[in-house]
Amino acid sequence: MQILPFYLLCDESGSMTGEPIDAINGALPDLHHEISTNPTVADKTRFCLIGFSDTATVLQPLVDLSDIDEVPGLAAGGLTSYGEAFRTLRNSIEADVAALKTQGHEVYRPVAFFLSDGIPTDHAWEQAYKELSASRYCPKIIAFGIGEAEESVIAQVANFRAFMQQDSSVSPAQALREFASSLTRSIVRSAATMAADGGNGFTLAVDDTVPGFSTVSLDKL
Length: 221
What we know:
Blueprint: E1 2-11, H1 19-36, H2 39-44, E2 45-52, E3 56-63, H3 83-102, E4 106-107, E5 111-116, H4 125-134, E6 140-145, H5 151-157, E7 161-165, H6 172-196, E8 213-216
Parallel strand pairs: 1-2, 1-4, 1-5, 5-6, 6-7
Antiparallel strand pairs: 2-3, 7-8
Helix pairs in contact: 1-6, 3-4
Protein name: VWA domain-containing protein
Domain VWFA: 5-183
Organism: Streptomyces actuosus
């Protein structure tokens, strides 16, 4: 079977306390329901949740969501650190792909959705990002910035698509609900694309626009 591993990396820094983290935790059950009850999606995808601040933790190891009752929630605390997030992501992908291949699966290029509301406090995070980018299974990264996140940093993180919370009139909770809806639509449509192609191809179907967000150019200077 051909499997698409996808990873959700969520900022758990102290600035996420309250509405932002509550919005993520409120959206995760919907994501779980959409994927686990859609046979096309559940058969093709495996999901991993990573929370990060000054440390990073795999909160939900890569799994078929139909095999679990609920997705763990996030808890905000610590400083905003990207380095640990990218190191944990790289290590997780390498181990997960090896395990899937041992089980006889063909593995599509992994996808990572990255969400942050702050500016990284670890100035050497770029090295961990370079190591991830140079790894054999570098994922397609879709980055979402909310709150005080810097557009230039979000664009630097993304290698496939980037979005920023549009303005202060859209609350973090509203923005994150749109993010969760976009994520679910992307996985559903992408799996449908695989099914229509007889399971022989995969095109990541991510929205060009997300309500509440502006699209960020990925042109690297």
